[in-house]
Amino acid sequence: MKPQNYNNHARYVTGYHFVLSLLLTVGLIVSLLNLHWHINDSLMGVSVLICVLFICGVFTFWFMRQFAIKAQDRAIRAEEGLRYLILSGKAFDSLLTMSQIVALRFAPDDELLELTARAVKENLSSAEIKKAIQNWKADHHRA
């Protein structure tokens, strides 16, 4: 595996992020067009059903991703909170946001305390935190 950094840390699953999203988008558009074409005729009921199924598919696609991210965020918060506690002897500052904590997971131990203090003091965004990291600590387990 090549070394991870700010420019290549995002992970995309081709079948999910590109193929499935494209199929659902095209299917939803075609089903809406089909519904428009069959308004007030005998196929309207089938067209409505197809439309509803594609809308359900889009919601399922969206929520599957959101639920997985939320579960991973909770695990990251616990792992990084423990790492910070071990390194500093204190809990994370309550002013840190979830996105900041998620970004801090890429900071190695020797940069974590200083970068955490900066994140709180300067209210750094997750992108700014990631860009400030000198020696990237890879995370290959994020979905």
Short description:
This protein has 143 residues and is an all-alpha fold. 68% of the residues lie in helices and 0% in strands.
Question: Mind explaining what this structure looks like?
Answer:
With 143 residues, the protein is mainly alpha-helical. It has one domain. Helices cover 68% and strands 0% of the residues. The chain contains five helices and no strands.
Low-confidence stretches: none
N-to-C terminal Cα separation, in Å?
16 Å
DSSP helix fraction: 55-70%
Strand content: under 5%
**Strands, total number:** 0
Shape: elongated
Transmembrane segments: 12-37, 43-64
Keywords: Membrane, Transmembrane, Transmembrane helix
How are the elements arranged and paired?
Elements: H1 14-37, H2 44-88, H3 98-104, H4 109-122, H5 126-132
Features:
143 residues, mainly alpha
